[in-house]
Amino acid sequence: MYIPSNMKMDDLSTAHDFINEFGFGVIVSDSLTGTHLPFVLHRDEGDNGVLYSHCAKANPHWKELDNKEVLIIFSGPHSYISPSWYAQSPAVPTWNYAAVHAYGVVSLLDGKQTLEAVEQVVGQYEPGLLLEKNIITDEFRDKMLPGIVGLKVELSHIEGKLKLGQLRKKEDQVGVYNALTQSSNLEDQALAHYMKKINLGTGAT
User: Fold this and answer.
1) What pTM value is reported for the model?
2) How far apart are CA 147 and CA 48, in angstroms?
3) 168-179 burial by CB neighbour count: b if 16+ within 10 A, else e?
4) Where are the domains of the chain?
5) Is 2.30.110.10 the CATH classification of the domain at 5-168?
6) How many CB atoms lie within 10 A of CB 194?
7) β-bridge partners, 70
8) Is the dihedral of CA 85, 87, 90, 91 positive or negative?
9) Helices 170-182, 186-197: inter-axial angle, 10-degree rounding
């Protein structure tokens, strides 16, 4: 990924936080096949963290993943940016976004490990569901498990990019933030929320 030095995520912890928040990624293999999957990060495993996920056994992509290097792309909020939102002119339209690319080697999990990987995803997004045995009974879970393949990705390298207009003057950033917050488009609002989270463009000092 092309990352100018002034748009680079500053440390591994920031990239890890991003993956935890935007954990639905695309795993891409040598054949340029991509599969969209939820991932759970164990940041304390390995040198750069370990990702766990699972996919349907009916998806043939898993057959080419074992012991192979992959790229996993995590995308955050993004939106079109109009030059009319800037205080300064002339200017051109652009697209602002945040993203993380994670590289690593895949290992396929056994049945017990796959169940753990599935429960980790549920535990991250709806922990109470693990206790609702009337919704997912043990019998139903065990029936579904043979149709699932668990994946472990030991990460070798992570790179993150924040292209959020931080190179513009403060008044331009504020103009973008205000326009995004007033938009009815949910992606625009999500980008504004993220800008506020990292204290960019809100007018705060």
Assistant:
1) 0.94
2) 30
3) beeebbbbbbeb
4) 5-168
5) yes
6) 22
7) 104
8) negative
9) 140
